[in-house]
Design a protein that fits this description.
The protein is an alpha+beta fold. The chain is built from 6 helices and 5 strands; from the N terminus they run ααβαβαβαββα. This is DNA endonuclease SmrA.
Length: about 190
């Protein structure tokens, strides 16, 4: 079949089809306008991020039991590293005791302590929060501390300590390496390859 015959055949088949007439053409899609509530939330989030990137709430925490064993591991932390932390196999070079502190004071102390530890290249610490059996509600400090540690980006993982180091009233906490230590480790590995 020749090209002319195909074209004629196509015309014949389409002879009873009427073209669609369209008088409106959208040249640009309508841009999304955020609502006032969305703008207010965005401004509040920016203020919070600008004032304190490690903002830790005093308003609410998921409550835990005084004797409950606590564990948290950020994605990417190796199972072997977490198991070693859980078993207390890492040397502890710093300790923070939160007994008799208010929640606000404890929050500030945790941030100060962890930042100081990271500056000093201390990676594994113990934070003693107590079981809180007599607090109202029970285990209030423990609940807040566990929630705060999950919100702090420099905390890789934590686990309740062994009995002789505080048991369920204390946490082993592992911190990320400082940038200087990361660079030092990278250089050491590169020099081995050479």
């Amino acid at each position: 079949m020749s090209d002319k015959n195909e074209f004629d055949l196509f015309r014949e088949m389409m002879s009873d089809v009427d073209p669609i007439e369209q008088d409106k053409v959208e040249t640009q899609p309508a841009s999304h306008q955020p609502t006032e509530a969305q703008l207010a939330r965005q401004q509040a989030a920016q203020k919070l991020a600008d004032s304190d990137p490690e903002y830790l709430s005093l308003d609410y925490a998921t409550m835990v039991k005084p004797d409950e064993v606590m564990a948290y591991k950020r994605a990417g932390v190796q199972e072997g590293v977490f198991r070693k932390l859980r078993l207390g196999k890492y040397d502890i070079h710093a300790r923070l005791d939160l007994h008799k502190m208010s929640l606000e004071k404890a929050r500030d102390e945790i941030l100060r302590f962890l930042k100081q530890c990271q500056r000093m290249d201390i990676r594994t610490v113990v934070i003693v929060h107590g079981k809180g059996e007599r607090s109202n509600p029970p285990a209030m400090m423990k609940s807040y501390v566990c929630q705060w540690l999950q919100q702090i980006s420099d905390v890789l993982c934590y686990h309740s300590a062994l009995r002789h180091q505080g048991g369920s009233g204390a946490l082993y906490v592992m911190l990320k390496k400082s940038q200087e230590k990361k660079l030092e480790t990278r250089e050491r590995h590169l020099s081995r390859r050479a």
